[in-house]
């Protein structure tokens, strides 16, 4: 047997943990390493030269030591400062970069994600801070900005919200609302499009009217794709851009050869279970963030070896608006 290097433990193939905490701590042991990583990833692959926007050429940059070490590198020709965190979600944050990286590690290394409350405990920050970080990561880094879906795409919409309980029913009766009105006032409509054996997109939508649905389909599915929907009128008139197949749920037909919406229904089922498992109530205000994270995870099929890397790289390259 070859001698064992105790400083570089080898993971067994059977290990399911993907990118482990030990690997994370070896790669990003402290704040300075995270900043240096950002500097190299965003501006300076060799760590020394970078494009100076003021000189408008490649220059040598240095980090000058001063009382409070600046979070910036300085052009030795003109004195221009480059801040590696500028334009990222870390800009203006008083939370250390190392904690941000650790938060991204935690959110990407667990099977179903963690709650803001767990993040608060792990990071040792105030709940408000944890919540803010959580939402920035979900809304900014996990939002899908890739190519629209294509090929065979199933689309559908569903209502999310708590089941109606007795108290809610009494309230509804007191207000004299119909079940339909109650749903539209208290629940949130979610749209999803799923490529068969492929990627998914999901978005909170204000209603299921024709214009809303047609716009969201056009935003998320490439023209020329085959579209599978139920017979809901809102999806009609998409035939100019898509090969449109509808399934007649009204006639209790659910599968007709290749024409079905089982994939997107399966996605909704899994998503509702996940929400029920982790959260007690879903407020529509942060539901989109939740969807982003769920879809982000779904599209990576739980490949936890690459999920963290994916997240930090997005943090470095995706500009905040
Ligand atoms: Zn310069």
- Computed structural class: alpha+beta
> Radius of gyration, Cα only, in angstroms?
24 Å
Small molecules in complex:
zinc ion
Number of strands: 11
> Helicity level, as a percent range?
25-40%
- The run of helices and strands is HHEEEEHHHEHHEEHEEEEHHH
Give the overall silhouette.
elongated
Low-confidence segments, ≥5 residues, pLDDT <50? none
Q: Count of helices?
A: 11
Distance between the termini: 55 Å
Average of per-residue pLDDT values: 86
What does this structure look like?
The protein has 321 residues and is of the alpha+beta class. The chain has eleven helices and eleven strands. A five-stranded mixed sheet has the order 7-6-5-8-9, with helices on both faces. A four-stranded antiparallel sheet has the order 1-2-3-4, with no helix packed on it. A two-stranded antiparallel sheet has the order 10-11. Helix 2 crosses helix 3, helix 3 crosses helix 11 (307-317) and helix 4 (116-123) crosses helix 5. The longest helix is centred in the last third of the chain and has 17 residues, at 262-278. It is elongated. The structure holds zinc ion (ZN). Zinc ion binds at residues 52, 54-55, 59, 75, 77-78, 80.
Considering the chains and any ligands shown, give keywords for the structure.
single chain, four-stranded antiparallel β-sheet, alpha+beta, binds zinc ion, five-stranded mixed β-sheet, 11 strands, elongated, 321 residues
List the helices and strands and how they pair.
Blueprint: H1 21-27, H2 31-42, E1 49-52, E2 57-62, E3 73-75, E4 81-82, H3 97-109, H4 116-123, H5 127-141, E5 152-160, H6 166-175, H7 179-186, E6 188-195, E7 200-205, H8 210-220, E8 226-230, E9 243-247, E10 255-256, E11 259-260, H9 262-278, H10 284-299, H11 307-317
Parallel strand pairs: 5-8, 8-9
Antiparallel strand pairs: 1-2, 2-3, 3-4, 5-6, 6-7, 10-11
The structure holds zinc ion (ZN).
Zinc ion binds next to loops.
